[in-house]
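Slide 14.
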Amino acid sequence: MVIALVTDFGTRDYFVGVMKGVILSINPRAQIVDITHEVPPQDVATGAFVLKATYRWFPPGTIFLAVVDPGVGTERAPLIVKTRRYFFVGPDNGLLMPAAEEDGVDEVYRITARLPEASKTFHGRDVFAPAAAHLSLGVEPRLLGVPVSTWRRLELPGARLEGETLHTCVVYVDRFGNVYTGVREEVKKVASVGDFLCVETPRGAVRARYVETYGRAPPGEAVLLINSEGYLELAVVMGNAAATYGLRPRDELRIRKCT
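Slide 15: predicted structure.
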C-alpha cells in the first residue's frame, strides 16, 4: 500500500525520517512516496494546493499523510478522511479538504489511536504516522477513531471578472519562480493567445504576452500561460518571475488586456 507524504518539515531535520521509521515499524512493506517536504512553514493553504494538485495521479487506495500543522497540540482534531478512492490523514485545519472534497468525502473520523505517551508537539510522528500505517495494513478507520460530521473547510483562491479585469491572487510559486494565479479558463474571456496582458501587482505592473508554452518567447520575456495544472501562470522565460516582481503566495493581482 502506498503512503504519500506532504509536510512543511524540510529535509534538514530528522522529522520526516522518524515518521517513516514509525510507519515501517508498523508496516515494513509500506511503499512511502515523498511528494514534498518543502511546503513553506505553517503555510496550510500552500500545502492544501500541493495535495489537491497531486492526489489524483496516485493509484486508488493511496493514503495521503499530510502535516502542515501550526495548531498541533491544541483543540484541532486529527483526522482520517475516507474518500471515494483514497484516504487522507492529517490535521483538521483545512489542509486535507480541497483534495478530499474534490474526490468525494465518504466518511470522516477523529483519530483517537496514538503512540503511548504521545507528545503535544509532534503529532506527525505520534498520531498521523501510526494511523496511516495501520490503514495501510487494512485496519478500518472506525478502529482508529470516532466518526465526525463536521470539519474545517478551506477554499483555494479563484478569480472573479469585473468588467474586463480579472481579480485574483498568487496561489503558488514553484522552484523555478513561476507564479500560479487563481485564474483558470476565465482568461479566455479577456484575451486570446498572442495578446499582451497587464498584471497589476502590489509592487508594480507587469506587461506579459499570453502564450501556449515557454518556448514561444525569447529568454527574459515575461509571459502568461495555462500550466499543467490548468492555472494561468506568470513566468519569465529562463528566469524567475517571483523574484523579478517580488511576488509571494496570496499577493493580490489584477489582470486585464493591455490597451
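Speaker note: The radius of gyration is 20 Å.
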